[in-house]
Here is the input.
Amino acid sequence: MGVKLDAIDTVVAGRFNPHIISPPWLAKEGIIAEGETVEAQIGVVGRAVVFRFKTGDFIWQVDYNRLVVSAEKIADTASVVAKVIEKLPHTPITAFGNNFHYSCNLSEWKGCLPRLENVGMDQLKEYGDVQSMGWKASISQADSVTVNVEMSIEPTESPPKVSVNLNYHRQVNAAADLVTAAQRFEEDRKASATLLESLLREKVEQ
Amino acid sequence: MSTTTIDRRPSNTTTVDRLAFEPADFAVLRDAGQESRATQAPDTLRFEYEVSNFQRTVGRQREVVRSAIVKKIVASDAPDEYIQTVIDTLLSSGRPGRLDDAIDILAETGRVLPQFILETLAQQQGTEADEDYWYVLIRAVGKSKLPSARMLIQLLWSRSPEAAVEALRDMGDDDSIKRLRAIATSEPSEFIRQMAAEFIEECSE
Here is the structure.
């Protein structure tokens, strides 16, 4: 078994009212099915004001600065987010991003891993128990997309794990821009797999 | 200035030495700054999944997952956010044992726990109404048996006297027993006095 896509998140940065984007409102607007099972996971606890709930395959997280829709399988989280913004077109938004999280056990990873000159895991171990090692890059592409790649190795996980997160970030200032960007979800997903295979030389398991 | 190299060895090699590639491989590479990362999933989002999954694990696997969660908190650049995530995720889960799960994790986080508590108090957040929130923190302090534990329990007494008495029992050392004796005789609340008396009896058995 090689690396697998194990989670997807679509994130919108802007100004949100978590009291509006709630399961009853989503049902009323037809974004989730009426009567769909809702598992509320987080309300207002302690310091944080974050509303988190699960509807079907999607996990929602809404706070005053961000709307996040996640799935732990291949599901178009971007189109769900787009439906919300279409219903709230005057929401001030600044950016939209699709995130693809790949991971696998270190023993199964056959591709490249981060390394600084001649400093690798073996050298770090001389100084103590290596908790994690990582690498990140931000790539500005011609079509106004910034691809943020983050790779980390966590040797203390059991079993030791490699994770690669690819974020396809776009600046958006209006609902219509976001809807257009959301339509590129599948394109982004395929691009993330291609990047993993061509750059890191690790084949993505279907 | 150091340089990085691309290792072109076949992809089926497994040594750590093959782990290099260089920025020049990208058509365009730039540090786009914080702004372009605004839509990355929050660091703690994946961590939330791990904490949620922890509640579903059993036996040896449970120990392994708990240990991994603790390591992540301690190694994090922002342990406060991770501690907050543990508390939020577990307390809001509604699952039986959620308070004990949170206490067990936080008790193992060492020095970051007092820092988190002092920071929370300084920000005047975590209100009196968040009874479970403070219950978990106070009990975790007691279980941690850190040098500053008794001072913190005293500091947090008004947030949850019940948790504070239990935390003193968890500490179980001579000074904590002495404090429990004082509580058993002088505390205005009969319920708290009784709790303290029971714990003293337990400890002397």
